[in-house]
Every structure is written in structure tokens, then in C-alpha cells.
Amino acid sequence: MNNPGLQKSSSGGLLAWARSRKGQKVWLPIAFMIIPLGLLILFTYYPFAEMVRFSFYKMKYTTPIDKRQFVGLKNYIDVFRRKDCFGALKLSLYYVVGALLQLVIALYLATILSFKVKGGNFFKGLMFFPYLINGIAIGFIFKFFYTRGFVFDTVLQWCGFQLDNLPYWLKDQSVNNWSLVATSVWRYFGQNMVLFIGAIMSVDDTLYEAAALDGANKWQMFRNIILPSIKTIVTLNIILSITGSLSAFEQPYVITNGANGTGTYFVIMNEIAHVSQKVGLASAMAVVLLLIIFACTILQKLFFKFVFRDAESEDESYAAKKARLKAEKESKAALKKGGAGA
């Protein structure tokens, strides 16, 4: 037999707990997380799980559920067997090389612009501006930039080159992928540069003074002070750049539509999914790319953990130099004070 008094007492105790400070610390975060987590599960994790499930089937978008053909790992095997899929995966190496070059340029310019340079702020804004432009717009800009006889060819003719001796920048397969990579480098190096500048400007200036007293040159300051101090940003930028290069899409899709051997992995995936309607194979390609990105991220973290293994000891040595510099200044001040007293 139910006891109404006991039920009322328990509900009243629960309400009192919910109103208490301890209760609010529990249910308020849960209440605020319910909607974001629900949206994340509904629009991210559930579609991802469905994509993984589709990768084991031979199907189209319009194929009824009862007519989908289960093929197991066949789609994953086809990713590496099909010339267009695996060739597009190898094409990503162009963009990986471009990403590394982009980071070198960004780090070089960031190191220069982090210190007092005449017109430095103007150059920072000028080089960051391409990142603010929409990727589709950049694609159309460079589509006309590289077109035969247009902007790039005209500039080269001003420099003394003959038009007949110039390649077709978007058709010649020996240069067309490098042309697209150059477009990507132009767009993204400003973003990397700004991140590097922010990290470099956070380095303590007295470390440079200590290094200068030891007779260190600019390269030694960069290698022993700047690079170890910004190792986290360097690692982050490289991971983002390389993973981004594996999923390049906008430039090759807008500029060439993947023609003449410029179809990147995402362009081929888009064609297989939306033109050929091979949803299972496209889903398997997406899962393979995700696994490759995970593997690259882990390998990069291990690599930089090895490269920067001595960074802490370098920081400690310069911390000692900083203390010595401070002691020298105090000693000089004491000597001046003693001389004035005499």
C-alpha cells in the first residue's frame, strides 16, 4: 500500500535538493548540455554512424532499404584497387608538399614581422587578407588568372617570356597540380603566419637579451629560443595544414572540375557519390580518409614529441641566463651606487 505522506516527503526533498546550491551545480550544467549534445548526436554522430553502415553496402540514394546489397569489405578494397580513387589519394602528396612549403614561408615572415619592422602592420593585413576571401571566389579568380593568354601569361610576357613557350597552366599535367597547390598556399599561409606571430610575440624579450650577451646570432636565437617556445603552435599548424591538404576540394573543383588529372580525393568522392550514385563506395572512401587523417595526426604528434624532446632543457638554460642577466644588472647598479656614494 502506497504511503501518500512518504511520496510527498520524497518529492519535497527532491525539490529542495534541486533548489539548493549543490543541486544546481548538478542539474544546471546538464540542462545547458542537453540541447547542444542532442544536436551534436543528431547532426554529427548519427549521420557518421549511418555513413559507416552504408560503406558495407552496394546502394544508391534512392535504393529501398530491403534492396540494399550487403558487400562487406568490397567497397574498402575497391578504394585501393580503382585507379581513380587511389590515384586521387596519391595526388594529395602535391598538397602535402605545398602545405609544408606554406608553413616555412609563414614561419619565416612571422619571425620577421614579430619584431619592429617599418610598415609591419600593413604587410600583416595584406598577407592575411586572402584567407578572408571565400574559397569559391578564389577559385574563380585563379581560373581566369591561369587561363591561356590571361593575367599570369601576360605578366610573364612582360618579363620577356614568349607565349608559345609557356605551358597551359591548367591543362599540362606536369604543372597543373602545382598551379592549384600554389593557389592553396597563397590563400592559407596568412592564417598560419598570424598564428605564428601571436606565439612569437609571447616569448619573453629578456631571453633575447641573454642570448645576445652570449654572442648568439639570429639563427641561433630562432633555433634555441623561438622554435622551442612556439612548439605547440608549430605542431598544431602542421597537423591542420597536412590534414587540410588531404581533403583539398574547393580549388580543384572550381578551377578545373577535376579535369586533366587534377581531381583530388574529395573531388573524386563527390563525383562517385553524386554523379555515379555509388553511395557505398563514397562512404568507404570517407572512412578511409578519416583513418588516414587519424594516422597522420598520431604520427605527427610522435614525430614532434621526438623533435622537441630537448625543448624543456633549452628553456631551462635560457631561464638560467635570464637570472644571470638580472644578477648582472643588479651588480652594475650596486657598483654605480657605491661609486656615487664615494
Detailed description of the structure:
The protein has helices at residues 4-19, 21-54, 74-81, 83-113, 120-132, 135-146, 151-158, 176-200, 205-213, 218-229, 231-246, 250-255, 265-274, 279-307, 311-341; strands at 57-58, 69-70. It is an all-alpha fold. A two-stranded antiparallel ribbon has the order 1-2. It has one domain (82-326): MetI-like (MetI-like fold). 76% of the residues lie in helices and 1% in strands. Helix 4 (83-113) packs parallel to helix 8.
Biggest sheet architecture:
2 strands, antiparallel
* Highest CATH level, the class: Mainly Alpha
CATH superfamily: MetI-like
- Which CATH architecture? Orthogonal Bundle
Supply the number of helical segments.
15
> Count the strands?
2
Taken as a percent bin, the fraction of beta residues is: under 5%
Secondary-structure-derived class: mainly alpha
Listing every helix as H and every strand as E from the N terminus to the C terminus, the arrangement reads HHEEHHHHHHHHHHHHH
How far apart the termini lie comes to 100 Å
Counting structural domains, the number is 1
How much helix is in the residues?
A: over 70%
Rough shape? Answer: flat
Mean pLDDT: 83
pLDDT < 50 runs, ≥5 residues: 313-317
State the strand order across the main sheet: 1-2
Oligomer: single chain
Rg from alpha-carbon coordinates = 29 Å
The third-level CATH topology is MetI-like fold
